[in-house]
Amino acid sequence: MRHCKPCSKRASRSLLGLPGESTSGNREYYLASVADKVYFAETALLPLTGLQATYYFLGEVWEHLAVELRVEQMAEYKTLGDQLVRTSMSEAHREMANALLDSLNAQFLADIAAARGMTPAQVQALIDTPLLTPQDFLQAGLIDGIAYDDEVVRKLGPEVKAVPLRTYRRVRPASLGLGRGPKIAVVAGAGTLVPAESGWSAMGQTLGAKTLAEALEQAAADDTIRAIVLRLDSPGGSVLAADLLWRAVKRATARKPVVVSMAGVAASGGYYAAAGASKIVALPATLTGSIGVVFLLPNVQGLLAKLGVHAETLTRGRYADLFSPLRSWSAAERQTVEQLVRALYQRFTRKVAEGRGLPPEAVERLARGRVWTGAQAQQLGLVDALGGFEVALQLAKEAANIPAEAPVQLVRFPRAPRLLPALLQRLRGQSRAASPWPRGLQRLLALPAAPPGPLLVMPWVFDIR
């Protein structure tokens, strides 16, 4: 389960689970379990062995490279900095990581148990067996048979036909009663927050504050739009980008209701932006919160010296080279950076308190950089409701005084980019895709190369599988 983002479990009566092959079957089986019937092929490899979370620590790397990595973070649960400079988990990090895994595992077991008519304890006992082969799953009652795709289709009977995608494409939405009624805007963005336009980089997909702010402004200015659903999937990123997007959300809410729908992750800068909305909806397994700040700045002077590169810096002004990557900080300079990080943190918590209607002291207890699951965040008052896009849409209709059963038109902002330029940009950004390193480690290694300065990023460089 990549970042452990289990799906909202809804299915029609005709849904069949047909998993294939993987060295970890947790995500695939979890998704398939909600189907009326689940079949495995005879040689399907989908071990159901339970969730595991892997965190990487680079503390010893910099010593070998003669690099001093300067990190200031606010506060103890803002553990992205820990992953860069420590060699093991702090107690706060371990506490948070176990709490996240407990919450996600409880959902994982409960949903499978409900789908298969078992108790969570029974599912856990089966996972601990473990379940490796299709025969294991069949004997445990977790699948309904062993069959290949064509055999499953035949089991459905002659009245059921496979419908190709091209047939669906020819169906006009209006013929099904869609595209009618009041308009609700859907503004969607995913990726690491950057101040400019959305796109792709070496870190993967980027969510541009400029792109989404313009989309929100267009939706808010359109008098035919009754409400806005903002779909966010972001671990955070640039402080400036988060603040620009928060301001755009606040400006839009001054004109009409804005409901945030969180996808797999909307944390740190992603949560900062969401805090300005009228309502926030998260999935139970959404990773959110992470209200904190981290400041990264490498000193590469030692590395350059090893390579035979030497530099001399001339300055005018006491702090002219405060953010230079070619020297260490004095005690007074470190204190100056600490004050900057604290000021940014206080601004973050103040905006959350205002947006959520919570006392500042309550936000401080929930903040400190700690990541919460959506289920935990809802209990703590950081989100308003649990569910997916449909729940957010219902709240938007309610806020806009549209009857719950009334059809609505969904108007999407921003417009989809032209295919060829978007594809080329994505290919450039994903040139590292063939790397043998785990994705979490790739992202962690890329962080010190990012522009130095404060970041609103959750400790997202880990895998839960």
List the helices and strands and how they pair.
Blueprint: E1 16-17, H1 26-33, E2 37-40, E3 53-55, H2 61-65, E4 68-74, H3 80-85, H4 91-116, H5 120-127, H6 134-140, E5 145-146, H7 149-155, H8 165-169, E6 183-190, E7 192-194, E8 199-201, E9 204-208, H9 209-221, E10 225-234, E11 236-238, H10 239-253, E12 258-267, H11 269-274, E13 279-282, E14 287-289, E15 293-299, H12 301-306, H13 331-356, H14 360-366, E16 371-373, H15 374-380, E17 385-386, H16 389-399, E18 409-413, H17 419-429, H18 439-446, E19 453-457, E20 462-464
Parallel strand pairs: 1-2, 2-5, 6-10, 6-18, 7-9, 10-12, 12-13, 12-14, 13-17
Antiparallel strand pairs: 3-20, 4-15, 8-9, 11-19, 14-16, 15-19
Helix pairs in contact: 4-5, 9-10, 13-14
Structural class determined from secondary elements:
alpha/beta
* Mean pLDDT metric: 88
The domain tally reads 2
Distance between the termini: 4 Å
Q: Largest sheet, described in full?
A: 8 strands, mixed
The level of helicity is 25-40%
- Residue stretches low in confidence (pLDDT < 50, at least 5 long) are 1-15
Shape from CA axes?
globular
According to DSSP, the number of beta strands is: 20
* Rg, nearest Å: 24 Å
Number of DSSP helices?
18
**CATH topology grouping of the largest domain:** 2-enoyl-CoA Hydratase, Chain A, domain 1
CATH class of the largest domain: Alpha Beta
Strand portion, in percent?
A: 15-25%
CATH level-4 homologous superfamily of the largest domain: 2-enoyl-CoA Hydratase, Chain A, domain 1
**What CATH architecture label of the largest domain applies?**
Alpha-Beta Complex
